[in-house]
Known about the structure:
10-stranded mixed sheet
Amino acid sequence: xxxxxxxxxxxxxxxxxxxxxxxxxxxxxxxxxxxxxxxxxxxxxxxxxxxxxxxxxxxxxxxxxxxxxxxxxxxxxxxxxxxxxxxxxxxxxxxxxxxxxxxxxxxxxxxxxxxxxxxxxxxxxxxxxxxxxxxxxxxxxxxxxxxxxxxxxxxxxxxxxxxxxxxxxxxxxxxxxxxxxxxxxxxxxxxxxxxxxxxxxxxxxxxxxxxxxxxxxxxxxxxxxxxxxxxxxxxxxxxxxxxxxxxxxxxxxxxxxxxxxxxxxxxxxxxxxxxxxxxxxxxxxxxxxxxxxxxxxxxxxxxxxxxxxxxxxxxxxxxxxxxxxxxxxxxxxxxxxxxxxxxxxxxxxxxxxxxxxxxxxxxxxxxxxxxxxxxxxxxxxxxxxxxxxxxxxxxxxxxxxxxxxxxxxxxxxxxxxxxxxxxxxxxxxxxxxxxxxxxxxxxxxx
Length: 446
């Protein structure tokens, strides 16, 4: 195929036709440089929704692979800054405050969603319905029900590529090496996993004040109940409120629980823990019936060790007290991995020597060559196939993360049927399976 004569439309047609063959497609030169050198007609058109700190960084990365023609944020300061960022659109993108304006544009091929967690799934499903390929930051979901809704949507719109922002899945010398070692049985039978995800901050009471004039507070809230503006509820600090996120359970859990679940191959539909014990968890404010009793303080758990038991006997402890990272303990050896190091006797003695090569990276990458997470996403758009950070495995990890948060909120053991995907024998805990959205902000069922 002569790339100089091809068009963006041709490439999109090719990607649609190749989804079914996935890894059978030969490796083509979809490097960042190749995208940068593409002619204007070849370059994908991208819309970026959510442009805070993480959203800005993601937008700058997306700009290597296409032209960012639209930026959107409910805080006009963020949208204006991104519009004029020389590494994003150099003043050429249209700026919006309503994401629907981005989705209704027929010229946009890809959307990047880096909003607060409570908006992710609604926007993502509507983006798929609008015919867009989707990149969405982690944690993808706010509730157990949302895991099902986004999975169903991705099954229906299987011609669209959906990538989750779990970039740890692309770190070959650390996390991929660890996953390979576990999956090949080099540590023996895994008995215990400790997932250290750190402590949420505590704070408050915070003052209720008027929102900044540049911020559409009502639209920022969207699907969740309307409340008075508190600066610490918004932007980065939304993470420490169960109304919008899951604290460290979903913030760092979306990374480390994901790697642990992948390594023990419990990342398929119908798998997961069967018992989740949240009895060793504390919160910075009083709770009643699973809900915080004050509305002006951070409320996510800040001190916890939640034990998740799997049907095969593996016990995974998700805690705030251990070193950030993942400790795997098997019958033959122990191994620790985080973003800075991979350690333990199996690593020091190189137990995986000759057993972790390029073919293993291709296997872990679902038949694609190992490369950066965003390059992998855009390769999949061109060639078809699932990205390494796919929705289907991600929601399995998020089931565990949400269950850990629910068990912690009640401070007791809950039981989960991973095949039926239901909390069993506890109607009070089961009521947190889903949340009723504010009228006018319903999530599409597809």
